[in-house]
Amino acid sequence: xxxxxxxxxxxxxxxxxxxxxxxxxxxxxxxxxxxxxxxxxxxxxxxxxxxxxxxxxxxxxxxxxxxxxxxxxxxxxxxxxxxxxxxxxxxxxxxxxxxxxxxxxxxxxxxxxxxxxxxxxxxxxxxxxxxxxxxx
Amino acid sequence: xxxxxxxxxxxxxxxxxxxxxxxxxxxxxxxxxxxxxxxxxxxxxxxxxxxxxxxxxxxxxxxxxxxxxxxxxxxxxxxxxxxxxxxxxxxxxxxxxxxxxxxxxxxxxxxxxxxxxxxxxxxxxxxxxxxxxxxx
Amino acid sequence: xxxxxxxxxxxxxxxxxxxxxxxxxxxxxxxxxxxxxxxxxxxxxxxxxxxxxxxxxxxxxxxxxxxxxxxxxxxxxxxxxxxxxxxxxxxxxxxxxxxxxxxxxxxxxxxxxxxxxxxxxxxxxxxxxxxxxxxx
Amino acid sequence: xxxxxxxxxxxxxxxxxxxxxxxxxxxxxxxxxxxxxxxxxxxxxxxxxxxxxxxxxxxxxxxxxxxxxxxxxxxxxxxxxxxxxxxxxxxxxxxxxxxxxxxxxxxxxxxxxxxxxxxxxxxxxxxxxxxxxxxx
Lengths: 136, 136, 136, 136
Fold this sequence. Notes:
Strand content of chain A: 25-35%
Oligomer: homotetramer
Largest sheet of chain A: 5 strands, antiparallel
Distance between the termini of chain A: 17 Å
Number of strands of chain A: 7
Helix content of chain A: 10-25%
CATH superfamily of chain A: Hotdog Thioesterase
Low-confidence stretches of chain A: none
CATH class of chain A: Alpha Beta
Strand order of the largest sheet of chain A: 1-4-5-6-3
Radius of gyration of chain A: 16 Å
Number of domains of chain A: 1
Mean pLDDT of chain A: 96
CATH architecture of chain A: Roll
Shape of chain A: elongated
CATH topology of chain A: Thiol Ester Dehydrase, Chain A
């Protein structure tokens, strides 16, 4: 299991007239979280794209328990629980201090620049092997 | 079952560097869809808020089959399949022409201005009764 | 002078906790307006990009007179006052009914895919000639 | 003169299909910059709103020199050059390392919850006096 923590301070632009963070904006925070998790594994997503790989979101789910507010200091805890095969599933927990606000997940698959599914790039496979053990 | 159709033309602002619509932006399109569905039922969401009710998103799920592109004409088909009780569940299908791009759902519950769960407002209950039949 | 009208219905996602449209979101509405103006001139911006041209924003200005609100029906009036040379300057007026809410302008220049300034594409030059008269 | 520095890492959500940050998103970065400047002066904008004051944007201007890219580390330098009277004017410079990408300004005025212009709150006037000297 790989876990990473990212911190975010809520922008006014991210709120809506309900006085809280617009529910759609958490997806961008998940993106911040997984970019950070990958970086901590030695995988810089920007470089993956430069090398012709893309990792789009195939599925997302999100449960909203309590709202985040403007100027809050938020922590996104991102978890890769299992060694990914063709699909990569990440889980997210969004906290303000010790208070859990939102949980969610995303599922991803690597594609090439033409949009066709491809095997994960070598750097990614090696990073996963380093964390989860040898290929079985 | 209540179904509504909304049309959207994709903005440049909604794309990302993958050359497609950013996955988080579909949630705003779902919002367009459900506002339209409610309006067609005689329920203007803006007026609900003026009357002290709010209908936040409690849960969302989304599956991305094919990407929407800049300048595409998009149709969001929003469906309320069952008469809502305390929770309201809406389903969404996002199309470009006949091609299904994205499916999703949202779950909502009414709250008051203090954030406490409340019974749906009378106008909403009446609209649901008109479409789904009498209270059982 | 070329003028075009676009209509927009304000999304909840576009509001902020001040209860009005977030000031940054008007820039996306300006984009809707100029895409429409170009289309009415026979220039489809998406096709320009497909042909290797890009028309980034070089400068923007915006004055906020009155706020737009959720669910408002908004009209963006976009004007190309003068025949563009190397720089293209567009003006915008954002209305709710007869009430002027926001004014603004953008300045643009054509670049190629490498980011170097280029002469406008032929289709654009012809469209401008058709509206503003012959090359002097 | 008061100057403040804020750092931002560019999110994928902030890019567009031109492969760079969408021009409208810099306005949210300016917002991050001025929130930080105010905080460093001892003025927490969130508390101003809690106390019934709002500080909307009345005018904005922005010049785009070079694009910011995904994952860039960006610095926003925010400057309050003169002691504000009824209007507050802030200037912004957006850098990647030593490279200036964007310059801009915003103009603001305090209003109350009903939207009427009001004198700045005491805490703000005191902070300005502390930085710019006594009332003349």
